[in-house]
Amino acid sequence: MSNLTEAAANAAEHAEAAAAHGPSAGEYIVHHLTHFNTTGHAQTSIIDFSVINVDTLVWSIATGLLTILILALATRRATSGVPGRFQGFIELLVEMVADQAKGIIHSEESRKYVAPMALTVFVWVFLMNAMDFFPVDLIPAIWQGVSGDHHAYMRVVPTADLNATLGMSLGVLLLCLYYNIKIKGAGGWIHELFTAPFGSHPVLYPVNFAMQLIEFAAKTISHGMRLFGNMYAGELVFMLIALMGAAWGASGATGPLLFLGHVLAGSVWAIFHILIVVLQAFIFMMLALVYIGQAHEGH
Q: Which residues pair with 37 in a beta bridge?
């Protein structure tokens, strides 16, 4: 009994010492990669579709509202005279998206909806990606102060959550199904499901249908995972750079050198990450246009 008491006391001392020295590098990264969800737990041991990542939901809605606000302000301030910088920038985006949509989707009627949708998607994904530019510990620290919980979790980059990116890609899939039926008719699309790509023969119907399902699934999954993978990796790199800065108090010359490396690496990666943020938003938008454009075409 005394051995158990002594072991418990030693464990408590080790826990207090760990708390005094702060989390380890692994604990720091795990904490920052854990979502604030509806379970109230750090992690769940099984896949549970009833669990909602509240932080992803909040920040995606916030950036979505900001997207609407930006585009609405651009619409209200639009003039027929010499445009200002803000109007000129928005007009540049509108022309870029319209040109891309025109080259992919040949139906002028469809472009009336698809082009504004693509513009909204581009700006929205860009803003969600750009949340990565906030200092890694800034918003989580603010949230910990507000919630009063030292172990509170908060992830602020919605596109670094696979749930968000797959949700958006599923939205694109629904649009593809809608335009398949609208352009080809329900009967024409069902006929295409069973006769393409290998031809109209009863023996080939199951194979064609399976290939069509695989094609839709592959497009949707890769569409969401491509954006998620790039943004998750970028978020992780920022955390590793932040750990270098946290080691400034190390003994000898190691601490100052690590802090200098933190400043240099953080600056270089932030500049490079600007390209990633813009490029990933553009790629997601273009793939959405391509997939919707393919729904207008027959095999």
A: 53
